[in-house]
Amino acid sequence: MKKLISVALTLLLVLQLGAQPKEVQNLLKTYEKTKAQTELAKRNDKPATWIRYAQALTKAYSYPTDNLWAGLSSLEARVVLKDQRALSTEYKQVQGEDYEVVKYADKDLYYNADGKLTFWVVTKPVIEGVNLLGEAFQAYKKAAELDTKGSNKSDIQEGLTFIANNHINEAMASYTLGDFTKASLGFEESFAAASHPALNVVDTTIVYYVGLTALMDKNFERAITFFDKCLTMGYDSSGDTYANLAESYKQTGDLEKSKELLSLGFTKYPDSQSILVALINIYLESNDDPNKVLAFIRRAQENEPDNPSLYYAEGNVLKGLGKFDEAIEMYGKSTQIDPGFFFGFFQMGQSYYDRAVDIQTAASDELDDNKYMKMVEELDQMLENAIAPFEKSFELAQEQELKDVVVEYLKNIYFRLRTKSPEYEAAYEKYNQMMLEE
């Protein structure tokens, strides 16, 4: 039976070779030969046997993209690829970036808007069904284990470096394509190869990337594992590791652990904007002491005085504390910093509108006619104050859903005020018609 299987594999290899260029035929032959040597008792206890097998794997891995590098123009790439013919070209938008994708028989090349090669994806490896980098890593590990005298150290280190670097290249391509699962695994495999004792290059940044891409993949437990590892290794990325680890715990529902980490990070990095923003969000979401939130917000404003979101956030906290005028001031400041900041205008309009509703509720219980009339005047004034920010919100809204919300507010306001002027009545008809058309 074993002989029959061996004959069948040999026939399969012959068929494959017949359909491949000479270089590929040589790579396949070398792969089969060196693999067979690792299975021979007389050869598999020698580090050189495993090194040759690993090199056969990495050469086969490299073949589709030999001599390519990021930054090549499409013309330069055609020169490098010589006789290889492009099968088709298509245009894709990936993560908001435009790419020209040139397809070959064994790979797709991605060129950015400047016409420069950014990354590639091998679609047909020389040896299919084999994890070439993974198998090569295992072979180099075996070689390192057998190389007790260190006579093959440089070859092993060169091979591990190649594997680590190419895992990073693949991980970055996966990240760009939005495949965060594959990206996270690729970064982890790169770290494993580089940090192997035979090479012993410990890059904590790569560990951070493993956690970050896991977080982007919503694999929160994995993210926690690797961000924890970062902190253990002393890599906190100027506070970002604390912020991302806290976010991972928050997503698992452990708000207390998240707060604990953010507080620790804030103690070490009081100027870290990522920590401050995370602290603000978690205190707002958990309805914790608003005065603590204000302290964090104001510290963040010192670091980033031109960020409209921070003044908007302060306005929301002040509004919750019942400090209406101060809240309006903060919303106004957010729109002064960024005249296109939709949420600042919208929240200002909504605050005036909510104040009008509160006055209307109080007026319905007022028995004194004079006080009642004053309250009605104040109610109408609040509604009139809401018009300008709501109109601006309508102008700025990009999404139809947001436009619909603003339209409903404006319709209600103009309905209440329609008898005050022909302009208000016309505005009511305008927005009412919009509602009917939805």
Structure description:
Helices cover 69% and strands 6% of the residues. By secondary structure, it is mostly helical. The chain has a domain at 306-438: Alpha Horseshoe (Serine Threonine Protein Phosphatase 5, Tetratricopeptide repeat). A four-stranded antiparallel beta sheet has the order 1-2-3-4. Strand 2 and strand 3 (107-111) form a beta hairpin. It is elongated. The N and C termini lie far apart (73 Å). Mean pLDDT is 90; it is low at 1-19.
CATH architecture of the domain at 306-438: Alpha Horseshoe
Strands, total number: 4
User: What is the gyration radius calculated from CA atoms?
Assistant: 32 Å
**Strand order in space, largest sheet:** 1-2-3-4
Features:
Serine Threonine Protein Phosphatase 5, Tetratricopeptide repeat; single chain; 69% helix; mainly alpha; elongated; 438 residues; disordered N terminus
Short description:
The protein has helices spanning 2-18, 22-38, 47-62, 74-81, 132-146, 153-176, 180-194, 204-216, 220-232, 240-251, 255-268, 273-285, 290-303, 308-320, 324-337, 342-363, 369-396, 400-417, 422-437; strands at residues 88-94, 97-103, 107-111, 117-122. With 438 residues, the chain is mainly alpha-helical.
